[in-house]
Specification:
single chain, about 180 residues, mainly alpha, Arc Repressor Mutant, subunit A, two-stranded antiparallel ribbon, about 5% strand
Amino acid sequence: MAKKKTKKQNEKKISNEKKPAAKTAKKSVKAVNVISDLARLARLMRSAEHEIGLNPAQWEALRFLSRCNENSNSPIALTRYLGATKGTISQTVIALVNKGLVNKTNREGERRSVVLTLTDEGREFLKADPWKRVEQAFRKTGTKKQRKTAATLSALLDQELEVRRTNGASAWPSSEFFGKVKKA
């Protein structure tokens, strides 16, 4: 003879059935998908840069000159930072000077040293930088995500710079260009 379940036992069984399963593990992230998304974002942004009238190297030069310290505002520093050839940087600088976005002058007291500075028009042009949209979206992600993302991207960049140095390519860390200049 089957035992009749009491009302309490039935309620307990029902409440156990309604309980959600233990918290599921966080969704795993596939590195290949993250890197693919990063590459796609970069391609989309390069396309947007062209739409505004400059090529990606010209945009990078403007961004660099807007942030670099006073010892790094030269064609050679720009070459090192971008890991580009002297010829590429020379053509980039010529185009930016011709567009009125950059001034090219001799460094005071040094006959062969060149100084690159943004013009007022160059600073104004940077306000339309397509990457500003990404920067604004990044700011909305919250401090914790920003720190994690910054640390991850920094580690990836450092690793790639090390590979380039090992292979004899130009690879200077960002701190060489953007850090404060110590006065003698």
